[in-house]
Amino acid sequence: MSRRKRIMYMMFVAFTILVLLTVRISFIQFVQGPWLSEMAYNQQSLDRQINPKRGTIYDATGKNILAVSATVETVTINPVNIPEEHKEKVAKTFSDIFELDYEKTLKKVKKRSSIETIAKKVDKEKTDQLRLWMNQNNITSGINIDEDTKRYYPNNELGSHFIGFCGSDNQGLDGIEAKYEDILKGSKGRIIRVTDAKGGEIGKEGEDYIAAIDGKDIVVSLDMTIQSICEKYLKEACIDNVCTDGGNVIAMDPETGDILAMVTYPSYNLNSPYEITNEEIKADWQNLTATERNNNLQAMWRNKAIADTYEPGSTFKTITTSAALQEGITQTDKEGEFCCTGGIEIAGVRIKCWRYYRPHGSESLRQALMNSCNPVFIGLGQKIGVEKYYSYLKKFGFLDKTGINLPGEAKGIFLAQNKVGPVELATISFGQRFEVTPLQMVTAVSAIANGGVRMKPRVVKQIIDTATGEVEEIAPEEVERVIDEKTANDVLSMMESVVAEGTGKNAKVKGFRVGGKTGTSEDGVNTNKYVTSFIGVAPISDPKIVVLVTLYNPTGEGGHQGGAVAAPVGGQILGDVLPYLELAKDNQEQEEIIEEVEIPEIRNLNLKEAKKILKELGLEIALSTELDKNAKEEEIMIKEQLPKPGIKVNKGSKISVEI
After folding, report:
1. Which residues does residue 550 pair with via DSSP β-bridges, in sequence order?
2. N or C: which end of the chain has fewer CB within 10 A?
3. Which domain holds residue 492?
4. Of the listed 314, 322, 372, 533, which one is catalytic?
5. Which alpha helices (DSSP H) does 85-123 contain, by range?
6. Can you give the pTM of this predicted structure?
7. Is the domain of 464 the same as that of 492?
8. What total number of domains does the chain contain?
9. Residue 516 and residue 623 share a domain
10. Is 101 within a domain?
């Protein structure tokens, strides 16, 4: 090859290389440029987040803390800044102080990454040990100790289903914590530190600090004292009455709609929400699948007071009563207006009164509510009619959610209006064959208690900006007027009679005028399970609290009747809450000591002997079956009794017997 050709060939090769380099540089600059710049930034900067302090949750008094963020610390590392000769002893120190797996920790320390998390939300006592070790070993770079926060619940189980809890990243996962996440969480801060090309720290001048903004505090409607009282008596009732499916209590201020207490039993510890409380399930925990574990946790966290529905039973007669009075169909005290013959026939179906074996006979509306007489309320429902009755269901809030600002609320389950026939209307009228939530029930009766206006349940009263001190008031919210004030007062007067002389006697509170209504219903069809309940209003002269007690499947010796099982719980709660609210006693002229008596053994006695013994103790007998006209009491033997012998009840209580 001639010299000229060699020169031309070399020039061509050089030109080709130049073109290729130009193309490559252009590709790097214009196509890969943004991506490479981001990579360089990530490689040459260390970005650590600073968690804000989550807002504190106070109870209704504004003094008692229900949830607070405690200061802890988080340990991270920049592996590239830890000298190779120190990596193993650094990993060993981490595993010793923070009780970590050494091999897994060593892998993190040896990674070629910009940042790795070693331990989150640890107590300062442990990080102080790490600081001391770092000073002793002259390790000044690659290990970061940043201030963090950890959610803490000072009262452990108190209000667990209402308050909810947070996850490991301080995010609210349930209850108030979840629903008010945007208000409580605050805004994260950052520490951005620039490094040299090898990953070495440049010093403080290369650091950019963006402060975190703490979350706002909130004052909830829950009163810690009232909540504690409700939790105490509900737990005792569920244990004493062997309530296999637990129970719940809701206490509401009828004037504002404030939820003063919301209890579901069994509860769980907010500081360890993933620790199952059911001992039987806990013992078998290791054998459960991930899905089964999750289902059990979800069931434990479930707020049955708002998420589950139940048949309200005779407590719902207060709604039928309100609608009938408002429509002018009946009067409170018209003597002999109704007559209970033990049952009533509707569209060819005979529906019995609960006391069909000994009919109530002639009654006024007041007496019918006191006796909880089903036929009277069936008749009222028929007179009201389906269309009008459903308009009252809508007004009282049973066909929609209440709108409470808590997660997981359900609504009532009713037949579509166009599918309701005479029999269906009859059963609805006395509280069966449909379902409502406990929250809907207490909200509806609160409308009666406050003079006829339905309030939206309120769970938060104030939001406080901790930085500025600004306080945002959350005003009570009226939904609509349901009945007029006269109707409401008439119903309250009859509810007072229920407690004074009727099925709610066991809810009496010394010195206070208390109104209420008991309820017993089946928990599903043919399940042999029952729901027993009591709803109380006090004081009747100026209602300040409405309490609903609901017990699921009581199987104890006390039976499953609302008057015998749930009413005493309502009385216990009101007996402690009313003095706490510093309300003046309003029936001191009628004040009496409610005498308790111990139920005697009457099994294997004849009916005449049993009646005599019970009468001497101030107790009544209730037969489970109707007697034959020619039967002689001396020849009728008692096979079973409820409640069982030895249980204490108020004088005037009824003992149910089987013959």
Report:
1. 248, 533
2. N
3. 306-594
4. 314
5. 87-98, 102-110
6. 0.81
7. yes
8. 4
9. no
10. yes
